[in-house]
Amino acid sequence: MDTPGKSKSQLMPSQPIPFAATIWEDQSDLFEQLRRRLASFAPNTQRALASDWKVWRVWCLDNDRNAFPASPADVSDFALAHSPPLYTDPAGAVTMDPEASGPSIRRAATVQRWLASLANLHRLANAPDPTKSEDVKAARRLISRGRGDAVQKAPLHWKDVRASLEALGNTLRDLRAKAMISIAYSTMARRAELVGIRVEDITVSPDGDGTVTLRTKGGAIHERYLAAEANRALRAWLGVSKIKTGPVFRGISRDGSITQTAVTSAEVARTFKRIGRMLGLSPDETLRISGHSTRIGAAQDLTIAGAALPEIMAAGGWRSPGMPARYARKLDARNGAMRDWLKGR
Questions:
Q1: Beta-bridge mates of residue 210
Q2: 17 — alpha (psi -120 to 50), left (phi > 0) or beta?
Q3: Which of 82, 111, 177, 184 has the smallest count of CB within 10 Å of its CB?
């Protein structure tokens, strides 16, 4: 119901201004347009765009460059300034040392993300995208050549989940860990989605399995499958912790009491690393375990089972095929025609 004497716009709380939009604050029409458009992104995306824009702005101020609209030449210089220095090899070819390090050198993936943010912000402002220039495209290729991706996080597969359900005990932390790892795998939840699950989000079927409502980082709501094993682990945790409503995964105080607030995403990673050590994974594998390890393992298990990429994307809530395809790329080498041929000789 509308309040008499007030417009709907007055009733709506004012939107916080994303930092990335403040550069255009002196251009009122453009500024309002950008504020609305940036507000349409998920909060994490807004923060990432603001952070990347700040890096660009600081570099421009330090080097007497114009931040907006950005010129392709300046964007190319910006990318190269944060990459290994160029040199000429004995054959006369210009290249860069992928192993070089220094205070200004960043990973190729980081610089690529900065360029993507600059492209997005210029498009949002209806300005020409400087990253479409051939000079910037050449800089992209140059800074990426020979500089491999970061080491992929270690997966936790269904066999690891089942082993953990058998190996973990009945302490509060172990019961929570059983529920956490089995639900994370079954739903392919991201860390933030996992810690956001509430008791009210869970529906159980007469067969013992069910569904879980996940709230994604973009604000969307999706239903994911809850395996019977995960449901049993969940019921054991909820029964002992006496949690009836609200967050499912909560903190445990030193005195053994259950807090009222949900655990952090960092606690998910710590729990999975503890499980990795308990299962006897190598120190290197344990170090590479993260809060998304069950998500990676589930995507790989689905790939091995023959699921098509669109099916895996739907199961894990991916909008583009890049990440699930990346998770499966090492499996492709171990399950391809050459492997079949050599194994069958």
A1: 204, 226
A2: beta
A3: 82
Over the stretch 266-322, which tens digit does the pLDDT of each residue have? 899 999 999 999 999 888 888 889 999 999 999 999 988 888 888 888 888 887 777
d(CA 139, CA 144): 9
The strand pairing partners of 203, in sequence order, are 211
| pTM of the complete model beyond 0.70 | no
Gyration radius (Cα) of the chain, Å: 24
| DSSP run (H or E) holding 14 | none
In order of start, what are the domains of the chain with their CATH numbers?
13-144 (1.10.150.130), 158-319 (1.10.443.10)
Closest CA to 54 of 67, 70, 35, 65: 67
**Beta-carbon contacts of residue 298 (< 8 Å; ≥ 6 apart):** 157, 158, 185, 188, 315, 316
Element of type H or E holding 280: none
